[in-house]
Amino acid sequence: MLGGGATIGNMIGEAAIAGGSDLDLRSAEMECFLANKTNSSSNNNNNPGHRSRISARERAAVFKDFHEAEGKLFCTSCNIILDHTRRSTITDHLKSKKHLKRKVEYEARRENRKQRMPTPSVEHQTGAQEVKRELAYEFLRMFLEASLPLEKADHPSVRGFLMHHVNDASSIPPSDQLCRIYFPSVYDSEKRLLKTVTLAGKKIALIVDESWDADYRFILNVLAAPLEKDVAGRIRPYLLDTIFLKSIDHGIVARSVVTVISEYNIAFENVYFFTTDNAAYMKKAFSAGLKVLLPNCIHITRLTHVLDLIMGQLQSPFQLTTTFMSIFRKLPSKRKGRYLDHLRQCNPAMRASVPPDPFAGGWSSYFRAAVYHRDHVKHQAAFLQKEMDQGFACETMERLWVGIIIIKL
Ligand SMILES: [Zn+2]
Fold first, then answer.
1. Nearest C-alpha neighbor of 33 from the set 47, 15, 18, 53
2. What distance in angstroms lies between residue 91's CA and the mean position of ligand 1's atoms?
3. Ligand 1 centre and the CA of 74: distance in Å?
4. Cα(11) to centroid of ligand 1, in Å?
5. What is residue 250's three-state secondary structure?
6. d(CA 282, CA 23)
7. Which residue ranges are recorded for the region named Disordered (predicted)?
8. Is domain 204-301 classified as CATH 2.40.30.20?
9. How many angstroms does the Cα of residue 77 sit away from the middle of ligand 1?
């Protein structure tokens, strides 16, 4: 991605746009486009799917969200190449959710850069410097989106790869500089994106929970989940703020919540759920304050506790499965090793793994483990048979064997 023409081309385009001299260039291009348009057949222009002979540069002159590099039309915000010969491709892209999201993000980044570097010397920095900065931003963003620890950017293998395959790799700073200089700007742009796109005008659920940091200070985490599925089909919560407090009571909770939702321009009537634990001050924060301000909101306490209770009830008819899963976890490590070898022999294409812990925490771990055993029970039966044939029987094995027989019945 980093070494590709799209990224570098995009950076060059952004640099040109940011450089300030683009206006003259654009008006010249506009004239050129108009001249061509006048000469071309007017019939063709009425057809949205028509493949025109117009160049990428001419398209870029008309649509300000795009730029041209090496004869190709790039969307400046999305960093992708579009078919410049079809006007409909461009107009469809401009209306797409992905583009609108990326555009806000891109504008926020440019705005941040302007605010952070107001000195004339920086304003007049060369396009090449701008390209290098953009590379560092893109690199950091990739790490954050993939949830990679930033210190991995300093790993010799990562550095070696970058030096060999990425132009200007030396301009990607080490992790401490990425964190200190570049990270605040990316954080600001993500925050702006949340405000202006992700949460804007949507019905939301607030999730508020307290905890402690290493110095035993109270931390109040305020999250919001838009009540609609994202592109991956999931309801996704976003951390709006982490507030450090000397003490905590219902007034502080209510004030903190109001401050945070106001900062994100969330309309009071768009908050539908206030989800917390069962603490008395959380209940009072809602009943004595937030309830009045948030007219459509209901308070849900101990949601995870309720889920745990429901899931506990769902597990109770399946005692044998639960016992089987928990005994299987207790197999000694040597035997687990032989079990993995057995799985590899059964199916070399499958990735052999030991069963997940059904009680690792959270109700979903039980279901993950149950699904694993459902998919492996045939191999487990053969493994137990083999072990006992080789004289490795023990009480645990016998209990498992009985379990397998009953399950198979
Ligand atoms: Zn785009």
1. 53
2. 10
3. 8
4. 14
5. helix
6. 56
7. 108-128
8. no
9. 5
Alpha helices in 96-208 (DSSP H): 97-116, 120-123, 127-145, 156-165, 175-177, 183-193
Do the beta carbons of residue 3 and residue 167 sit within 8 Å? yes
- Residues around ligand 1, an ion, CB closer than 5 A: 75, 77-78, 99
Separation of CA 247 and ligand 1 centre (Å): 46
- Other Cβ atoms closer than 10 A to 330: 10
What are the residue boundaries of the structural domains of the chain, listed by start? 5-171, 204-301, 315-408
Q: What is the DSSP string of 191-206?
A: HHHIIIIISTT--EEE
Most distant CA atoms of the chain, gap in Å: 90
Q: How far is the CA of 80 from the centre of ligand 1 (A)?
A: 7
Q: Could you tell me what percent of the chain has a pLDDT over 70?
A: 81
- For residue 102, report the distance from its CA to the centre of ligand 1, in Å: 7
Ligand 1 centroid to Cα of residue 136, in Å, is 21
Eight-state DSSP code of residue 215? T
The token duo for 290 is 């937030």
Q: Which tens digits make up the pLDDT trace of 51-102? A: 677 888 888 888 888 888 778 888 888 888 888 888 888 999 998 888 888 8
Q: Sign of the C-alpha dihedral, residues 186, 191, 194, 195?
A: negative
**Model-level pTM?**
0.53
- Tell me, in angstroms, the distance from the centre of ligand 1 to residue 88's CA: 14
Find all residues with CB under 8 Å of 306, minimum gap 6, and list them: none
β strands within 278-371, DSSP E: 298-301
